[in-house]
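Please, is this right?
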Amino acid sequence: MNDLSELAASWREARQLYPLYAALAREFVIDLPSCADLEANVEAPPRESVELARQWLADLDERILVHQLRQFLQTTTLASDDDLRALLMHHLHKPTHSTADRDKTDFLLVQFFSHCAPSRLEDADVDLAYVAQMLEPALGSVDLNVPDWLAPLDEIMEQANRCQSLKDMLASQILEKGRKLKTSVGDNYFVPTAMVAFTRFSFLMRRVFFRLMHQDLNAILDGLRELGARGVATLDCRRAQFSAEEPVARLRMICQSWKVMFHAEYSAGQPLRMLVDLRSVVESGLAKTAGAANPASKSSPAETRAQAAAAGADLAAPQDAPEFEVSADQQDWSEVKPDGGP
């Protein structure tokens, strides 16, 4: 590609990316002067404008954090498949890649795959060949001879599929294992075969997450309804970072809001831990009030409600809380588009 062709290609890329980057800057209040010729959508700018546009994009790349890019692309209606491909190609074509560049590329690969793949895609159909086919517009033809250093991905995926709850997933540190492998391969991450393998892994891992999240939320909601039927009005939810007398009705509303929140961005470790601990609180409450549902109980209805309420007020003391190490940078929970789950 000659110099003029390269400048023209750079300008086309900058014009396509500008609306997304400008929206990102506005949403996250990134104070950076606008690029005048990009703002004006000039078709044939001088060389200086192309260089300024390159620098403007580079400056924003430095200031946009990975979780901000995730949050924006998982909630915006501005990004088409072509825009996602342009954003992905922009990161792939950088001469050098920082850790943040790798993490953004990792997210964008799965986001692009999720947009291109059918919504009702079965897990069994998500093999390497299919993922490579979907990513071909960005990566070109990919050699599917997977190197030995990627073999642990399948082992980690098998462990994830055996999990019965988010508690199992957090306790087994499955996500941390995947993250460590991704970090350990260094620049080999950008080998096309590796990018295909990591895209498949992240997409399937996300489906596991959503399956477990829905199971936990449904178990909590079912448990709260049962506790309400048993006369329990409040629960001691200090373990889950709520109050010592948290109204059951309010907990049900919170769980409904969590369904929306986790679909928007499920990278935050603290809400996940709260969800896991709240399920433990509810299960403890059900166990302690089991007598309230026993038809053979000789207590009067009023006595039963009083006993259930007393039991509910005594549940889940914080000192008994199980501890889960969920680090602040545990962002790979949100590597792909929200509707990729079952």
Q: What stands out?
A: Residues 211-332 form one domain.
